[in-house]
């Protein structure tokens, strides 16, 4: 029988809340599998589930939270307002629909999924999230896929900074300047596609580091994220991989290892540039 793993460390958010540093990402997890795999993750030691309206599995994630063998207050659940619902009233309605699907009384973190600068509605969307936070419906609020200039807009026009910016981030796209901007503004950077959808794992540099540490390439990359201070939400489709991804807190990459990974930067994205919407 596999051992139960310790939950990920808790990182402080600027609003006084905390977030588990490593969570279970549910992008492209089919609804038919989402409850089972979420429960597998919780039983393995995960306390952070990341879903979204766009993922189509909020209902199943909510079922897992209600059936979990741990108290609700120990779990951290994130969802997101999809780009088609940007706008003040639209975001409020989208939030109510998400909560009905989740079946939860309160959400731990709500994000704007994409800024969609072509419609110029993300500031109004942000004002809606601020209202939901102030009303106590949401614990924390943040954004996803925001460049620094998008962040400057919402902070400048509302006076409220997000506590999280969830962006594509992996060794090919380490987002050095954006992470520095986030840090300077009290924003925690969270990595989606942390393994570049698995494509970066074939790199021989990571294979060598994995052999050196007696780990898998995925564990090397996830440990890199952890040591950068990122929140990271890898997806996994099997109990074995779910456990493997969480098992990264009992070893450390050396400075030379980190330098080797830094050299992999190419700027390649697996998803869209947020300015292209």
From TrEMBL:
Annotated Gene3D superfamilies: NADP-dependent oxidoreductase domain
Protein name: Aldo/keto reductase
Residues annotated as domain NADP-dependent oxidoreductase: 28-264
Listed SUPFAM superfamilies: NAD(P)-linked oxidoreductase
Keywords: NADP, Oxidoreductase
Superkingdom per UniProt: Bacteria
Keyword check for Oxidoreductase: yes
Keyword Cell inner membrane: no
Family membership: Belongs to the aldo/keto reductase family.
Organism: Agromyces lapidis
InterPro entries: AKR, Aldo/ket_reductase_CS, NAD(P)_OxRdtase_dom_sf, NADP_OxRdtase_dom
A Pfam family that the UniProt record links to this protein: Aldo_ket_red
């Amino acid at each position: 029988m596999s051992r139960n793993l310790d939950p990920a460390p808790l990182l402080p958010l600027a609003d006084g809340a905390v977030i588990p540093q490593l969570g279970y990402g549910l992008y492209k997890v089919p609804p038919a599998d989402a409850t089972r795999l979420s429960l597998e993750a919780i039983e393995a030691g995960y306390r952070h589930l990341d879903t979204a309206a766009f993922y189509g599995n909020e209902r199943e994630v909510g079922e897992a939270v209600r059936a979990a063998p741990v108290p609700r207050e120990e779990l951290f659940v994130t969802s997101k307002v999809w780009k088609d619902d940007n706008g003040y009233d639209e975001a409020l309605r989208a939030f109510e629909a998400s909560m009905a699907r989740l079946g939860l009384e309160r959400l731990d973190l709500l994000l704007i999924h994409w800024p969609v600068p072509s419609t110029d509605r993300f500031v109004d969307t942000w004002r809606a999230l601020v209202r939901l936070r102030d009303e106590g419906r949401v614990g924390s609020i943040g954004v996803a896929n925001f460049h620094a200039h998008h962040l400057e807009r919402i902070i400048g026009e509302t006076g409220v900074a997000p506590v999280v910016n969830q962006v594509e981030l992996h060794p090919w796209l380490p987002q050095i300047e954006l992470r520095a901007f986030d840090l300077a503004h009290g924003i925690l950077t969270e990595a989606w596609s942390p393994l570049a959808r698995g494509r970066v794992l074939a790199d021989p540099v990571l294979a060598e580091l994995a052999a050196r540490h007696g780990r898998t390439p995925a564990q090397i990359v996830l440990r890199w994220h952890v040591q950068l201070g990122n929140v990271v939400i890898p997806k996994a489709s099997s109990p074995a991989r779910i456990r493997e991804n969480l098992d990264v807190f009992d070893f450390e990459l050396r400075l030379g290892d980190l330098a080797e990974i830094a050299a992999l930067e190419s700027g390649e994205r697996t998803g869209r540039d947020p300015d292209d919407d």
